């Protein structure tokens, strides 16, 4: 069993029966009283960040997790099928484990995080930006470019996002998977 002196950014710990990664930590030694470690922990399944303070020397349970490269194959009912890019083994996971399922398209490269001891998938992470094609968009109105006007566009995965007026059908754009916002136009 490890102690708080083993805490570092990025490690995975079990806290209150759930898995968290350490986003940030700070060892504090006040002038009066006992030392402690202040942490920001990210809940692995939900991504919610909480703050917690551990007494210096407290026992923590470090968990091993592995990130493995997978490729999205297809969706069947509420399950998504993926193939490991090196071993070609296939797995299926539920939609609740994917951080942004609305931006998944066939052939998309993702990382699936596994609990190393139990070999269970914990989370499927898409890259921060994905390139998607615009399949439908209203034409921009000429002369309406003085303001940062946005219009709705439907992407190849079926998701609707706001894009600038100069984006047309057939354009490829970068979309931020964490915020769901338009990033930039990509040249073909």
Summarize the structure.
With 188 residues, the protein is mainly β.
Into which percentage range does the β-strand content fall?
Answer: over 45%
How confident overall, as mean pLDDT?
90
- CATH topology term of the largest domain: SH3 type barrels
* Radius of gyration (Å): 21 Å
The geometry reads as flat
How would you describe the oligomerization state of the chains in this entry? single chain
Task: List the total number of helices.
Answer: 0
Q: What are the low-pLDDT stretches, counting only 5+ consecutive residues below 50?
A: none
Instruction: Kindly state the percentage of residues in helix.
Output: under 10%
- CATH class of the largest domain reads Mainly Beta
Main β-sheet: number of strands, strand sense, barrel status? 6 strands, antiparallel
The helix/strand series, from N terminus to C terminus, equals: EEEEEEEEEEEEEEEE
Estimate nothing, just give the exact number of structural domains. 3
